[in-house]
Amino acid sequence: MIKVFDFDNTIYRGESSIDFALYMLRYNKRILLFLPDLLFNLVTYKLCLVSKEKLERRINDAIKIIVRDREELMRLTRSFWQENYYKLDDRMLRRIDKNDFIITAGPSFLIDAIKNSLNTSNLICSEIDWDRMEISHFNFGDNKVKRYSELCGDKPIDCFYTDSFNDRSMMAISKRVYYVKNGNIKCIK
Asked: What is the CATH number of domain 3-187?
């Protein structure tokens, strides 16, 4: 039996990438240039009104200006998790077994930093090409299913946990779907 979990607002209480951008404001004021746009795109994303391509372009624009170097980013990531680890939902973490998957649009560097706490090493995230300073794989929408299929073939998903109808494609390939809101879980399929 394989369970698959979305990360933001499912395992993590909130949007980890937005929280990380706000955290970085303390050290990098250039984020202020992109914060209104990122917040606007977050809202349109939550309302299922933004295209994957537009969101990816906006994120790539921000990365090129915000990220000075990879070492600084890794240091800030570790520091971020020291302050925000408490936002991981223990009840959801207890549901995760070593054979389960966490699949998220969030960047791998952010999720990898806490992978030892997630009860599985099966993480499917957005990837960044550090040489070009842009997303090489945006794990959003249909791309979640494509990436899952690349890694697992046609291995069925017994349960999928998510907070967003942006995950319709993952819902379609799952036997059961659980909608997570504020820590409450409701079976919707």
From this structure: 3.40.50.1000
